[in-house]
C-alpha cells in the first residue's frame, strides 16, 4: 500500500539520504565522523566478501595491522625451549614461560628453617596417621562382620551391642597397628612397594598369632601342656627375609648393629630413660613369654622410628647452624642469629 504515501518507489531507485546533505556537513562528517563517505556502499556496488568486510571493520577501529596468523600455521622454533608444563608445544607464550618456576621450587625457596623443621615433624605424624588406614584395610573382614551383625544379626546380639564382633575388630586393629610399627612402617624413607610388603607381612603375622593363640587355648582346654613354638613370632631374620635386605627395617638394624645398640635384636632397657624403663616393666607384667617377646619387638620398632626422626631433626639443626655461621662471616647476622649464638645454639653436639 505504498501508493498512500505517493506511489510505489522502488528501494533501488530511492535517492540516498547522504546525497541530500549540505556539502559543508558532508565535509565535516568525512573528517570527524567514524565512517567515511566512500565506505557507504552504493546500491550498484557488488556485495563485499567476508574478508573485505573484516578489513573494513578493522580500518574503522584503527586496526591497520594484519590479523594474527592462525594457530595451525604456527610452527615451533628450533631454538624455543618449551617447558613440560606448557599446554602448547608449538612455542606459543614462550615469553611467559621464561620466568616460570615450579610450585615446589617456590615453596621450598620460601620456607625458613622453622618450616623445614616442621616438615620433618609433619612427615612423622603423617606416617602415624597412615598406620591407622593400613590397619583398617587389613581388618576389613572383621569390620564387615561387625557391620553385618548390626544389620542382620540376631536380637540377642543387637541387645549386647554386637560385643563379640566388636572385640574381634578392635583386637585386629590394635595388633595390626602394632605390627606395622614393629616392622618399620613409621620410617620416613620408604617406597610404596615397601609399604605394601610391610602391610602384607603385618597381616600374615596377625593371622599366625591368632593360630598360636587358638593352639594354646585348645591345649589348655584339653589339659595338655602349653605348646612350644620353634621361633618367636617376629625375628630379625624372618622380617628381613619378608621385607627385603634394602628395607627400612634392615637399614635401621644395620645402623644399630654398627653403633653397638641392641634395640634391633631385642629390647635393651639401658637405652631408655629411667621413667620409660618403669613404663616398659609395667607393660610386660602379667604377659606370657610369647606376648612379652612381641611387646618388646613393638617397643623396639617405635624406638627405631623415634631415632630416625631425631636424626632428621639433628640434620636440620646442623644445616641451620651452618647458615647462621655463613651469615655471620658475611656480616649479615640477624638479631635472631645473635640471640641463638648467645644461647649456645651454635655449639655442636
What's the structural blueprint in terms of helices and strands?
Blueprint: H1 23-32, H2 50-60, H3 94-97, H4 103-110, H5 113-138, H6 140-152, H7 155-159, H8 163-182, H9 192-221, H10 236-243, H11 248-259, H12 274-284, H13 289-329, H14 335-342
Helix pairs in contact: 5-8, 5-13, 6-8, 8-9, 8-13
Structure description:
The protein has a domain at 113-339. It is 59% helix and 0% strand. The protein has helices at 23-32, 50-60, 94-97, 103-110, 113-138, 140-152, 155-159, 163-182, 192-221, 236-243, 248-259, 274-284, 289-329, 335-342. Helix 5 packs antiparallel against helix 13 and helix 8 (163-182) crosses helix 13. The chain is flat. Mean pLDDT is 75; it is low at 1-8, 35-40 and 70-76.
Mean pLDDT across the residues is: 75
Cα distance, first to last residue?
108 Å
Which structural class matches the secondary elements?
mainly alpha
Gross morphology is: flat
* Unreliable runs: 1-8, 35-40, 70-76
User: What percentage of the residues does DSSP assign to strands (E)?
Assistant: under 5%
Q: Mind summarizing the main beta sheet? A: none
Helix share bin: 55-70%
Q: In angstroms, what is the radius of gyration?
A: 41 Å
The number of helical runs is 14
Order of SSEs, N→C?
HHHHHHHHHHHHHH
Oligomer state equals single chain
For the secondary structure, the number of strands is 0
Protein name: Autophagy protein
Region (Disordered): 1-87, 319-349
Biased composition (Polar residues): 72-84
Biased composition (Basic and acidic residues): 13-34
Amino acid at each position: 500500500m505504498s501508493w498512500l504515501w505517493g506511489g510505489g518507489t522502488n528501494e533501488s531507485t530511492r535517492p540516498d539520504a547522504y546525497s541530500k546533505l549540505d556539502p559543508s556537513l558532508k565535509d565535516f562528517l568525512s573528517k570527524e565522523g567514524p565512517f567515511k563517505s566512500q565506505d557507504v556502499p552504493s546500491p550498484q556496488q557488488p556485495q563485499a566478501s567476508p574478508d573485505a568486510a573484516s578489513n573494513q571493520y578493522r580500518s574503522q577501529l584503527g586496526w591497520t595491522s594484519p590479523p594474527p596468523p592462525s594457530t595451525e600455521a604456527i610452527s615451533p622454533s628450533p631454538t624455543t625451549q618449551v617447558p613440560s608444563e606448557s599446554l602448547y608445544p608449538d612455542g606459543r607464550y614462550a615469553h611467559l614461560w621464561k620466568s616460570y618456576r615450579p610450585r615446589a621450587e617456590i615453596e621450598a625457596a620460601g620456607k625458613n628453617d622453622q618450616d623445614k623443621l616442621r616438615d620433618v615433624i609433619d612427615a612423622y605424624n603423617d606416617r602415624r596417621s597412615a598406620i591407622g588406614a593400613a590397619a583398617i584395610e587389613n581388618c576389613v573382614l572383621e569390620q564387615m562382620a561387625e557391620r553385618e551383625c548390626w544389620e542382620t544379626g540376631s536380637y540377642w546380639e543387637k541387645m549386647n551391642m554386637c560385643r563379640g564382633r566388636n572385640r574381634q575388630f578392635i583386637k585386629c586393629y590394635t595388633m595390626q597397628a602394632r605390627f606395622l610399627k614393629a616392622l618399620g612402617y613409621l620410617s620416613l624413607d620408604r617406597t610404596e612397594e615397601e609399604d605394601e610388603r610391610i602391610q602384607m607381612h603385618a597381616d600374615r603375622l596377625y593371622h599366625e598369632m591368632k593360630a598360636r593363640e587358638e593352639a594354646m587355648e585348645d591345649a589348655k582346654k584339653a589339659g595338655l601342656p602349653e605348646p612350644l613354638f620353634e621361633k618367636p613370632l617376629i625375628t630379625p631374620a624372618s622380617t628381613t627375609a619378608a621385607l627385603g635386605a634394602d628395607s627400612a627395617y634392615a637399614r635401621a638394624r644395620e645402623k644399630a648393629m654398627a653403633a653397638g645398640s641392641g634395640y634391633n635384636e631385642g629390647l635393651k632397657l639401658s637405652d631408655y630413660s629411667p621413667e620409660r624403663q618403669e613404663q616398659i616393666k609395667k607393660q610386660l607384667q602379667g604377659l606370657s613369654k610369647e606376648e612379652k617377646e612381641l611387646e618388646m619387638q613393638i617397643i623396639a620398632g617405635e624406638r627405631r622410628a623415634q631415632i630416625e626422626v631425631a636424626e632428621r631433626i639433628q640434620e636440620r639443626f646442623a644445616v641451620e647452624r651452618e647458615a647462621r655461621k655463613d651469615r655471620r662471616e658475611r656480616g649479615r647476622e640477624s638479631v635472631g642469629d645473635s640471640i641463638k649464638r648467645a644461647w649456645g645454639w651454635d655449639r655442636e653436639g
